[in-house]
Amino acid sequence: MLRFRADGKGNVTGHVAGHVIRHVARPRPPPAVFDQPDGPARHRASWLYDAASDHRWPTLLWRGEMLEKSETTVPIVRTRDTAAEVVVLDGRTRVMVHPDEVGNAYALFEQTIPPGKGPPMHVHRHETEIFYVVEGEFELYVGDETVRAGPGAIMVGPRDIRHTFRNVGTTPGILHLTVIPGDFGHYFIEVTEVPDHDTDTIRTLLDKYDVALV
User: In a 3-state reduction of DSSP, which class is residue 208?
Assistant: First the structure.
């Protein structure tokens, strides 16, 4: 069982696997590279402190921090007809929840993907992407796995694990995409109408969000 205690000043102490873990409230550091069991990873983060080993490492989002970031003054209710629309992968992407509306905690899109289309294999250093198939037939790639899936399927692409998808059907397919945290959602607005073959522009935009083509 995980047990945590807050002191009301942004500091949280807990016990995990016999270690005393403290979330220390302090200004966010700049992006930096830290050694992790599966290799270096880049983070914009708060810090965890392990009193037993006197070791610090970054953590992306804590629950209290997430709730604070996702706070909105009014509920969001939006239909397809009222959502902003951009052009990505030669298809329509509707911005159902813009990251700026929720303090960059997440972003939610509805993507209409033409047959044969999908992004290049890529890896995020900060975000998890969650894909839900609404219509059509897709091949979903995550890590070393490939799955052919139709409506109702879901794929979670964690940060630091390569993933992509492709519409393998004969008609346009629809995906719901959730990006957590949501800062990368701005990429879809910035890349709108950039041709698929303009790889230099796409790579420049991806570099801005620390996303690598692999």
Answer: helix
